[in-house]
């Protein structure tokens, strides 16, 4: 998947561990560890830790400035993630769309919302030089 010896780590709140595990496993993430207060996932090659923190849930999440996700380098992987999210009836925060149409930074994107209202963006740039 990635050609580096580093793994990005992100810690986010969750309100309930079982529903969190269900969501992220449906997304295709592998449960790495589970404790009484947190779960750790292999999130597309990176580490996401969901800490039990029901009093720290954003009741009205917005896409900006806080979200995280995956930028696919292969269009077929983006399409597969979208197909999987749809088939598994994961909750969309923003339906699939094209941003910056006709510009070099044009990309396909969709946003999911997890059970703790964390927003996840999945995208694919037609011009791979725009990934970073």
Structure description:
This protein has helices at 17-26, 75-87; strands at residues 9-14, 30-34, 38-43, 46-52, 68-72, 92-99, 107-113, 119-125. It starts with 8 loop residues before the first strand and ends in a 7-residue tail after the last strand. Strands 1-4-3-2 form a 4-stranded mixed beta sheet, with helices on one face. It is α/β, with parallel strands linked by helices and 132 residues long. It has one domain: 2,3-Dihydroxybiphenyl 1,2-Dioxygenase, domain 1.
Write out key terms for the chains shown:
four-stranded mixed sheet; alpha/beta; 2,3-Dihydroxybiphenyl 1,2-Dioxygenase, domain 1; 8 strands; globular; Glyas_Fos-R_dOase_dom; single chain; 2 helices; 132 residues; Glyas_Bleomycin-R_OHBP_Dase
Number of strands: 8
Number of domains: 1
CATH superfamily assignment?
A: 2,3-Dihydroxybiphenyl 1,2-Dioxygenase, domain 1
DSSP summary: helix tally = 2
Low-confidence stretches: none
* Structural class determined from secondary elements: alpha/beta
Principal-axis shape equals: globular
Helix content: 10-25%
CATH uppermost class: Alpha Beta
Mean pLDDT: 95
CATH architecture: Roll
Strand order of the largest sheet: 1-4-3-2
Remind me, CATH topology?
2,3-Dihydroxybiphenyl 1,2-Dioxygenase, domain 1
What series of H and E elements makes up the topology? EHEEEEHEEE
Report, as a whole number of angstroms, the end-to-end distance.
17 Å
Quote the beta fraction: 35-45%
